[in-house]
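Final report, Chapter 2: Outcomes

The project's central promise was a pipeline that accepts a single protein chain and returns its three-dimensional structure in a standardized token representation, suitable for archiving and comparison. That pipeline is now operational. To close this chapter, we reproduce one record exactly as it appears in the project archive, with the input sequence first and the structure output second.
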Amino acid sequence: MDFIEKSIRRLTKVMGFLGSALVILLVLHVSADVILRNVFDYPIAGTIEVVSMVYMIGICFLPLALADVQDAHISVEVLSELMPPRVVRWLIMAGTALGIVVMGMLCWRTWLEAVTQMNKGTVMIVAGRDPIITWPSYFILPLGFGLSALVCAYKLIFQILRRPVRHDADELPAGMELVAGERVDNV
């Protein structure tokens, strides 16, 4: 299990790093476009298209599994605080199982679309520039969704075994003390 956990953590960190690198590239690209447009009256053709078809897709979907690993998705615990720990535990496991199904289905569907776009050789035509090849960016979505489904499957195994998934932080994420079968008083 340690090998699997380390592999998943490394892979999600790489995806998070790539997402961060795309943010930096986006800022540099847009800044260069603004400077060139306003100072030299020579904008970079296709900036909006590259930002929307490459940078934004990568920024949104590459770090998706990293948020799963860190339990950084938004959660609301209004009703669960009123429920018995056993019910909350089952709800957490059901939500994780649902995450596997949804992320798996999204991975499969976006994979089919990516293959279709690759076979077509999809490009974007931009005035004043050669066509921009866009089909590789379609593979970012199944990569993000697939890794997220893998993380959810790994977490579900730990939830069934009543073992908390280790985090970088010392404390358990919200609700995980119930999955682990422990009671933790938040101070």
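Archive annotation: The mean pLDDT is 85.
This record, like all others produced under the grant, will remain available to the consortium after the project formally closes.
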